[in-house]
Amino acid sequence: MDVAEPPRIVFESTATCADSRHAEAELNEALSRARAPAPAWRVTMRIRKTASNALQADGDIIDDGGAAVGHREFTGKPKDCEGLARAVGVWASLVLDAEIRRPRPATTQADKDRDAKADSGDAIKSPAEPKNNGPLPNPFPQPDEEPSRRDEPATKELGIGGFVMSGVGGGSALLGASPFFDMAVGRVVLLRPSVAVGESLPGAGPQTFWAALRLDGCFRVVGQYTSRRGLQMDMCGGIDVGFLEEQSGAGQSAPYVAPGPSVDLRGELGGDLAVILRGVAGVNVVHILADTPIFSGRGEIALAWSLP
Fold it and tell me: What CATH number is given for 149-306 in this structure?
């Protein structure tokens, strides 16, 4: 009767690895709890250099009859023998576990008699052929595979923020909201159209209503994105075009045009949600109202959602 026991582990091509002892230890550690369906199963790992000077690890699983059960190739960076050994060990553990769980036909007396004849030399064994057990499990992507969408900065986002602004109208601060849309046109370049609407704080001097459209072009400085948890800074330049209206006194209104820079600091909150801190500065080029300051600025905090 077949008895589950640890597989035999064979580590070859040690001359390729400067850290061969550590790599072999990683392979043994990854397979320390693995069990094979029967005695004499073997897990073999071979490491060799490719034409591009990278390392390739070949993992093979052989059963007690000498038949190939599984084969897998992993490619890694030079001198990364330990990482390749860990990958082969995890893969082999999953394959062995699947083999243990796979139903096997019971051994009949005829099978035992045939095996006895084969062992005594009365029959010639046919060459062992690999078993076809369907697709082999892949525990994780190979190091040279393309990153998934969730490992990259968002390319399209929809968001809304609230802001505090000064330097408009009579100089009193404005509170307002600003929906926006981000669209990447390259890996590090994006366009951001937005709308902003705000009013003066009640009782803080002349009451002013302000609304503007803004278009920014941004250069994106991408941070580390591991499972979509990273930091990103956007350095932008754009222009506000709109109008402002003084709702007290003579009730004057005037166009509003203000080019200037903006800076965003964006942090992932997990999933498709991010929080953004934004600073915008502008130079007011229209001075129909006598009390219009030369410079304006606003600070904003916003939430953004990544779009597919």
Answer: 2.40.160.20
